[in-house]
Amino acid sequence: MSQNELLKIEKPVRYLGGEMGAVLKENPVVRFVLAFPDVYEVGMSHLGFQILYKVLNTPDWLAAERAYAPWPDREAQLREGNLPLSTIESGTPLAQAGIIGFTLQYELSYTNILNMLELAGIPLGAAERDERWPLILGGGPCAYNPEPLADFFDAFLLGDGEEATVEIAAAYRDWRASGAAKAVLLEQLAKIPGVYVPSFFAVSYHEDGRVKAIESQLPGYTQVRRRFLTDLDQAPYPTEPVLPFLKTVHDRVSLEVARGCTRGCRFCQAGYVYRPVRERKPQTLLDLAERTLQATGYEEISLLSLSTGDYGCIEPLLKELMVRHADSKVAISFPSLRVGTLTPELIEEIKKVRKTGFTLAPEAGSERLRRVINKGITEADLLANAHAAYAAGWRTIKLYFMIGLPTENDEDIQSIMELGRQVKTEARRARGDGEVTVSVSSFVPKAHTPFQWEPQITYEEILTKQDLLRTELKRRKVNFRWQDAPLSVMEGVFARGDRRLGAVLRAARAKGCRFDGWGEHFKFSAWLQAFAEVGLDPRWYHRRRDDDEILPWQHLDCGVTTDYLRLERQLALKEEATTDCRTGRCTGCGVCDFTQVKRQCYAPDTFTPEVRVPIEPSSDEGALKIRARFSKTERLRFLSHLELITMFTRAVSRANIPIRYSQGFHPHPKFSFATALSVGVESYAEYLDMEVVAGFRPDELLRRLNEVLPPGMQMLEAWAMPLKSPSLTSLMERVRYRVTLPDHFAAELAPQAAHFLTLETYPYRREKKGQDFDLRRELHALQVDGARIELEVGRGKPLEFVAAILGCPLTALDDCRIEKLAVVFRDNPDPVAHVAPICDITSTATDLTL
User: Fold this and answer.
1) Cβ contacts of residue 825 below 8 Å, gap of 6+?
2) Helices of type H across 255-377
């Protein structure tokens, strides 16, 4: 990938690789590509992706590499240059990999999967690929009804992947060594628990489109039961994950405290397909948190679970985390908390460092509808939790609801608005002011839930309910957020879809559909045209399913029995609750065998935390400022200034630099940079100031940071400064650059430069920013050596000067190499004093005296 290509696209660091924690293996026996069908920053936020990256890179013979859906600007470059989609680690084209494993996280990413296969030059249909092509594997939540994707995938993994993925890779390795046909590999994969090979099942349909029969084509292979990880506490966890250069969606340590949930919310697919509850021991979590914080430099720990507040040792765990990490300004956050699990003790601990986001999820507005969905919370609980949060200092609370739930009526919608108003009242009672945001999504029935037979409300009904909520909540001065109705329509189609939708996916992809989960790229009209071409009506998939109807996913077993789901549906219609088996009797869902597969929880009395004395905050006395120079070269020249700050923030923490922090709501490490460097420019003269505690030496800062910084970033020198010394920006006078042009500029460069120096003035205007300055008066020194020009300037960018000298547009200089050699400071007039030897210009240079 050339510099010219990268500088023309948004966020080039998405495609660089080489991050801290990334693994590159030479000539592995099996190359397993973890493919995420969305952009880099979404995929890198997915904990399961990081777990599998660690697991698959553990065996010597196996290498995990990553690939993400390229953003449209990069996709255009790949297509125009006829370049294949390749892995980030080694640049291996996907078509040359052994296995490509796609994460099926969201139904609206399906067209991205087809697009990635297209860009890789891999035939879309599984039937079109023989043993010469990679094995295409899918896993994740959507694998519990993968039928819309059945035409494109060789196999799917249902359930936990920590053990199964390595078994799949080993089966592939042995098959490849045997030289057998692809059919042999598929038969071997079908023997691995949790692996579903769709080509071994034939599906027929009634004339009205309902499934007529699902018939096995492989003896003994009639039902596929999901894979269970029996002991989460012993499961691998990525304590040294890949650290992105850019900010990701979830830019923090994601610590999975438990897997599975037994609350039994009847709309929640995850609550059924991830059973039983398996918790990690508190001591294990403390150890994982400490090791991961040290390896990453993150400033926040997110305790992940489907219901984090239900974790058996949540209060003592949280208190111990705060004792250990509050002095490092590490915050603790939760995903949306279940109303009723938020105790005053939890609130007190969370707010000690900084107040992270606060979301409560009542799901339904009325208590009647919450009984239908088995949410098990009351209005009084919700208002009490909201009041406690506002009183503790939070200013904004987000409430999450769904519209279109089974049996919903107008009163239930009114209850959403009333509940929003009441929470707003709690804000005034607790603190005098405060914001409330009501976030509403449309209910989508999912496979393997009690509501899998229920209808989804129409597009028109969604719009009507959203319009009513928007109007009424605005009147109550409550903020409103919603999911676009067309996205809900399409999600509902594929959530309960069948194999006939494969043709629709092909047609939609041919019409340019991809990134359908991103509103600005979603093409509803193109989707409707695709359905029309295939002869299917999307509304047909939103209908109520008959009790005795064969469902497209009926041959896939998530562990919970169909009889249990039917019983839960009946209880929902009666508005009756089902107790949580964590605290009550077994509900008989069918998941546990009570030997290997069983609930695994830990009570607070089983955890005795270590006695640790919190570290006292450092005193300001004797604090000093360290000024340092560093280089930014190779692939890291494509980091933006914001990405550079992010990287240093993590590096300072990873290196245990005793840095001082700002005060206030969100404490930040106290360092500052000189002026921002343009993306793509190499530099040997970047400067930063960093405030540290008394006694910390500049040479120690250099040593520690160089141990943790990635290749392309190196600390070169550092020296102590008075704490109140002037800022770098105020001291900068001029900057020295070297620009290396394509060879065809060599003949004209020197005479054109000499002519430019005869000018008294050269007015220049930056149109985008409306800035005017004189390039000639800002040029202080100039040397030319063939196709290289070295110049010392005040204001202005180096290519602006070169374009003016040559009399050409800036676009003609796209292929130039730009190096920042030195900075001239007011207190140090000799710019060469801080120039690395590599920057010396040759003795044959033409010195054009100014």
Assistant:
1) 731, 732, 733
2) 269-273, 282-296, 314-325, 344-350, 367-372
* Element spanning 533, H or E: helix 524-534
Torsion angle, alpha carbons of 199, 202, 205, 210, to 10: -70
Q: Which two tokens stand for residue 65?
A: 């590499």
Ranges of beta strands (E only) in 164-200 are 195-196
* 329/285 Cα distance (integer angstroms): 19
User: Could you count the other beta carbons within 10 Å of the beta carbon of residue 411?
Assistant: 12
Report the C-alpha gap between 335 and 340 in whole angstroms: 15
How far CA 745 is from CA of 132, 555, 589, 666, 847, in Å, comes to 47, 68, 75, 51, 18
pTM to 2 decimal places: 0.90
* HEC readout, 543-567: CCCCCCCECCCCCEECCCCHHHHHH
Is the pLDDT at 154 greater than 50? The verdict is yes
Query: Which percentage of the chain shows pLDDT scores above 70?
Result: 93
Degrees (nearest 5) of the Cα angle 626, 632, 633? 155
- Dihedral angle of Cα 792, 797, 803, 806, to the nearest 10 degrees: 0
Mean pLDDT of the chain: 91
Q: Which of 492, 487, 100, 54 is nearest to 267 (CA)?
A: 492
Q: What share of the chain is helix, strand, coil (3-state, %, to 5)?
A: 35, 20, 45
Task: At 302, list the tokens.
Answer: 């997110």
Q: Can you tell me the distance from the alpha carbon of 524 to that of 599, in angstroms, rounded to the nearest whole number? A: 44
Q: What is the mean pLDDT of residues 178-205?
A: 98
Cβ atoms 148, 502 nearer than 8 A: yes
The yes-or-no verdict on residue 831 having pLDDT over 60 is no
Alpha-carbon gap, residue 805 to 305, rounded angstroms = 61
List the end-to-end C-alpha distance of the chain, in Å, as a whole number.
Answer: 39
Q: Which helix (H) or strand (E) holds 593?
A: none
Look at the alpha carbons of 543, 544, 546, 549 in this order and tell me if their dihedral is positive or negative. positive
pLDDT score of 833 more than 60: no
Question: Environment class of residue 380 by beta-carbon count within 10 Å: exposed (0-12), middle (13-18) or buried (19+)?
Answer: exposed
Strand, coil or helix: 744: helix
Strand partners, 103: 139
- By residue count, the chain amounts to 850
Residue 102 per-residue DSSP state: E
Cα 142 from Cα 182, distance rounded (Å): 25
Has residue 1 got a pLDDT over 60? no
Q: Please name which of 407, 453, 675 lies closest in space to residue 551, comparing C-alpha atoms.
A: 453
One-letter identity of residue 28: P
Q: How many CB atoms lie within 10 A of CB 202?
A: 11
Is the pLDDT score of 350 beyond 70? no
Other residues' Cβ atoms within 10 Å of the Cβ of residue 256: 21
Beta bridge partners of 471: none
Q: If DSSP states are collapsed to H, E and C, what string results for 213-281?
A: EEEECCCCCCCEECECCCCHHHCCCCCCCCECCCCCCCCCEEEECEECCCCCCCCCHHHHHCCCCEECC
* Helices and strands in the chain, H and E counts: 25, 30
In angstroms, rounded to a whole number, what is the distance separating the alpha carbons of residues 512 and 392?
49
User: Pseudo-torsion of CA 274, 57, 634, 719, nearest 10°?
Assistant: 80
**pLDDT of the residue at 844:** 37
> Nearest-CA neighbor of 671 among 719, 620, 727, 633?
727
Q: Count CB atoms within 10 A of the CB of residue 627.
A: 19
With 0-12 / 13-18 / 19 or more C-beta atoms within 10 angstroms meaning exposed / middle / buried, residue 605 is exposed
